[in-house]
TrEMBL record:
One of its GO terms (cellular component) is cytosol. This is Bifunctional [glutamine synthetase] adenylyltransferase/[glutamine synthetase]-adenylyl-L-tyrosine phosphorylase. It is an enzyme of class 2 (transferase). Gene3D superfamilies: Beta Polymerase, domain 2, Nucleotidyltransferases domain 2. It comes from the Bacteria. One of its GO terms (biological process) is regulation of glutamine family amino acid metabolic process. Its EC number is 2.7.7.89.
Length: 936
């Protein structure tokens, strides 16, 4: 902020005589400063009167206004409590005059002006509160409190709300405060004795600021934003306030707390209270239901004030009227309410900074943020001029021609030009904000009209089915039914575009039936119509995914959370994002639930990308696997930290988590469980060191169980993954955690061939760097030794026979087990890696190694690889659509279309024939390979 008052604009004196009188008060001023004084006094009787009172102080203050305000605050801080009321009024007078001149001259911009007003308000509240509390301390009415406690308000804190909280006070603003006390500052019954004194102090503080005396007033003070003000005292305990907000708090109170900040008294206690209130203000999900609440408030204001019809300048309310300041504030606040629970960067108090951040994060267009910010600043300047004229707490434009002429002169412009600019701004603000709050109203973005009857007729609408909808929990409230009735035409139109509309409608019925509540989701659809088309795609193609959505509808948040259709960010970026999400939560179980919510959103994202053809099945498999790796990398340290609170840090070098099977290969499907092994190295330490120490073996066994529980336990947000640990040494009979020494000894001396085959796809996912490196180097060295192909292929043939004997039936669409299917192909590829001593690579690489080693023909390798890819694609589609075995007759027309797209087949019949031919070719290739080796 520049500490030199250099005018860049000047008001014109509306009343020339008053202007001349004002200029005569300061004969030593000349040039623009003299013109500023003359124009100001000639437009504002109030400011002219202040000039007369402060004619000795003002000239020096204009030289360095910032320093002058700082000196005034310092002067007030030294005033005795019994004299503070009068001196605060003098201070307010000086501040009001100096800030007005800095504003009118253009030397300060809006943020500097409102910041200075808010800063003085903070100081005034702090001094008034201190003086009021000092009187109670002096009378020994606050048990345990002395003069030293006055610096922290004796446990009392004033929360600045509204414009004061945001640092955006207007020129003649009242101040909204909520006053609370921290019960923990008082012992036992002392709080009951202190309570009346704290109430008296709050009332005395308000009177010091609010009462009009011969010296005027400091700030009109409003304490009615507190919980239930008609029946609660002017200050209340924090615990009682928190209980109120948790049980009865309304949307407008949530919005009010966006701007709340402690401004006086016990600042630390106030900040702790606001942190405790964070879950009330900032909901975990995208809260589109709040938009309707905000719109209802807007309509209530309009009804009460009569703000209907075309915008007319005469008497228009610049704050509450159509297109006014409140519209812009609501627009910013309720976008913040919608998304701020998920995006902490949106939790800003100031209106213009909030608009900028909303644009930065992609919630509103950049152009919208710029337009509303520009008009907000212009509206506030007009509001300030209106208030400066007579120090009136008004927001209304003058209703007569003389008043408009005075306002135009005050703003240094012409009357016609000013009127045109204000009206244009009001209309543009109204158009932009109405489109958000009421998109189907005139002035909003109307959606295409869809006739419900026509849409219903197009899809052979089942009247009995629709009648049943009214009995579903999602439509149990009147508000939910009202929103849904408005959405129904577009929903039905979207469903009618499915390959088989009747199937899509039935799937949508399942989705709707599974919803526990509807207002929030329906409001989201209303605000984001593109979600309706997405829901139509999902219900028309993947009914099972639609059922999942109905039970986890919060995952729709991810679609509109920004960047949903961007490219996959990669494992490291996702680790950072999940880590940030978990750090927000302090409680362990909340961390686990936060992980579940986060994974569902990304899991849903992968599924939608696959469904819409943005990624191929192979890419989907890679992304599912990376997502699981991220969970293990981030959650394993969290599980260990929680376990350590009871049993101490991990003894020795710690434990690493190794992924096996498809997890180790980095290829999962939508419903994969995780094959894991936990390997630990106690490094000779016999037990842990903690409150409840455990023997090292027991420690790591229980720690492993804690990991399995963290991943697979059903919680409020469901499960993360099912976990399978049967691939560990000794299988399900051995300990759940394997010591590093035991793992090495077992692999060196006891492991079966199939266990070494499995190691070709093993990788450490999470754990201490040194131990992880040792494990992976051991694996590499063990496999790099190579194996004679005869014994390996003999063991593969035996394993193949056992699997075939154990499998009772194979359907034509079974992609994993059976002759020539993927489990057999994977065994051959793993054998290629193990025999060649190459520990890296997957199916294609393993088959290529077999060809180069001479025991597999190129044609055989090609048959196996092409079959594997075909079956992999089929399996990915099947797992995306349903948890059951794939049956094309059961997945609907949309599912069949997806299956054909991902396999390149023309018809289901052709695909079935291709599967039969490919698996038979693969089976014959494997037969030939194993028979050749058996004959040698």
């Amino acid at each position: 902020m520049n500490d030199t008052l250099i005018p860049t604009r000047l008001p014109r004196p509306f009343d020339r005589d008053r202007g001349a009188e004002g200029r005569a008060l300061f004969p030593d001023l000349s040039g623009d400063l003299a013109a500023l004084i003359e124009g100001t006094a000639g437009c504002s009787p109030y400011l002219g009167a202040l000039m007369a009172k402060e004619r000795h102080w003002l000239p020096g203050a204009m030289v360095a206004p910032l320093a002058a305000l700082s000196e005034e605050k310092a002067r007030l801080s030294e005033i005795a409590p019994d004299q503070i009321a009068a001196e605060l009024r003098r201070g307010k007078r000086r501040m009001a005059l100096l800030v007005a001149l800095a504003d009118l001259s253009g030397a300060w911009d809006l943020s500097q002006v409102t910041g200075a007003l808010s800063d003085f308000a903070d100081h005034a509240v702090a001094l008034a509160l201190r003086a009021a509390l000092a009187a109670e301390v002096k009378r020994n009415k606050l048990p345990g409190m002395g003069e030293a406690d006055l610096a922290t308000g004796c446990g009392l804190v004033a929360l600045a709300m509204g414009k004061m909280g945001a640092g955006e006070l207007n020129y003649s603003s009242d101040i909204d405060l909520i006053v609370l006390y921290d019960e923990a500052r008082y012992r036992g019954e002392d709080v009951l004795e202190a309570r009346p004194a704290l109430i008296r102090a709050t009332r005395k503080m308000a009177a010091t600021l609010n009462d009009i005396t011969s010296e005027g007033y400091v700030f009109r003070t409003d304490l009615r934003l507190r919980p239930d003000p008609s029946v609660t005292p002017v200050c209340m305990g924090m615990a009682a306030a928190e209980r109120y907000y948790e049980s009865l708090g309304r949307t407008w109170e949530r919005a009010a707390y966006i701007k709340a900040r402690p401004c006086a008294g016990d600042i630390a206690a106030g900040e702790a209270f606001l942190e405790d209130l964070r879950p009330f203000v900032w909901r975990r999900h995208l809260d589109f239901a709040a938009i309707q609440d905000a719109h209802d408030v807007r309509l209530a204001i309009r009804r009460k004030k009569g703000f209907f019809g075309p915008i007319q300048l005469a008497g228009h309310d610049m704050k509450l009227g159509r297109g006014g300041i409140r519209e812009i504030e609501f627009f910013a606040q309720f976008h913040q309410i919608v998304a701020g629970g998920r995006d902490a960067s949106l939790r800003l108090r100031g209106t213009v900074p909030a608009l900028a951040q909303l644009a930065e994060r992609g919630w509103i267009p950049q152009a919208t943020a710029e337009v509303l910010s520009r008009h907000y600043r212009a509206h506030r300047e007009v509001e300030h001029r209106v208030q400066m004229i007579n120090d009136a707490q008004t927001h209304q434009l003058p209703s007569g021609a003389e008043g408009l002429s005075r306002l135009a002169a005050f703003m240094g412009t012409g009357e016609a030009e000013l009127g045109r600019e204000i009206k244009d701004r009001l209309e543009e603000v109204h158009s932009v904000t109405e489109a958000f709050f009421a998109p189907d109203k005139p002035g909003g973005k109307a959606q295409p009209e869809v006739c419900a009857e026509e849409a219903e007729a197009e899809i052979s609408f089942d009247e009995a089915l629709v009648t049943r909808w009214r009995s579903y929990p999602a439509l149990s409230s009147e508000r939910a039914r009202h929103i849904f009735d408005r959405l129904r035409p577009q929903l039905l139109q979207s469903l009618s575009r499915a390959a088989r509309p009747e199937e899509a409608l039935t799937a949508f019925d399942g989705f709707l039936r599974g919803l526990p509540a509807g207002v929030q989701l329906f409001s989201m659809f209303q605000a984001n119509p593109q979600l309706i088309d997405l829901l139509g795609d999902i219900t028309g193609t993947a009914p099972d995914l639609a059922l999942y959505l109905s039970r986890n509808s919060a995952v729709f948040d991810a679609v509109i959370g920004g960047g949903f259709f961007a490219e996959w960010p990669g494992e490291d970026a996702l680790c950072k994002e999940l880590d940030r999400a978990l750090q927000i939560e302090e409680d362990y179980e909340r961390k686990l639930d936060a992980a579940r919510r986060w994974v569902k959103e990304w899991h849903f994202r992968i599924g939608v990308h696959h469904l819409r053809g943005l990624i191929e099945p192979k890419e989907a498999g890679h992304e599912y696997a990376e997502l699981a790796s991220v969970v293990l990398r981030v959650l394993w340290p969290v599980v260990q930290a929680e376990f350590a609170t009871r049993h101490g840090p991990p003894p020795g070098r710690g434990a690493a988590v190794m992924g096996m099977g498809s997890m180790g290969a980095g290829r999962l499907n939508a419903r994969s469980d995780l094959d894991l092994i936990v390997i630990y190295d106690a490094a000779g330490e016999e037990s842990s060191e903690g409150r409840r120490p455990l023997a090292s073996r027991v420690y790591y066994a229980r720690l492993t169980q804690a990991l399995v529980t963290a991943l697979s336990a059903p919680m409020a947000e469901g499960r993360l993954y099912e976990v399978d640990m049967r691939l560990r040494p000794s299988g399900s009979q051995g300990p759940v955690a394997t010591s590093w020494q035991s793992f090495r000894d077992y692999q060196e001396t006891q492991a079966w061939t199939w266990e070494h085959l499995a190691l070709t796809r093993a990788r450490v996912v999470s754990g201490p760097e040194a131990l992880s490196k040792d494990i992976m180097e051991f694996r590499r060295d063990l496999i790099a030794r190579g194996r004679a192909k005869g014994p390996v292929l003999k063991d593969v043939a035996e394993m193949r026979a056992r699997i075939a004997a154990a499998k009772t039936a194979v359907t034509p669409w079974d992609v994993k087990t059976g002759r020539g299917r993927n489990q057999e192909i994977e065994l051959m590829a793993q054998a290629g890696g193990l025999i060649a001593g190459d520990p890296d690579g997957w199916i294609g690489e393993g088959l290529d190694l077999a060809v180069r080693a001479g025991w597999m023909e190129p044609a055989e390798s090609a048959a196996l690889l092409s079959t594997y890819r075909l079956l992999w694609n089929i399996g990915q589609v099947g797992k995306l659509l349903s948890g059951k075995a794939l049956d094309p007759d059961e997945i609907g027309e949309g599912g069949r279309a997806l299956l054909l797209r991902d396999t390149g087949a023309e018809t289901i019949e052709a695909l079935q024939a291709q599967v039969a031919a490919s698996t038979e070719a693969a089976a014959q290739a494997i037969d030939a390979i194993l028979e050749r080796e058996a004959d040698r």
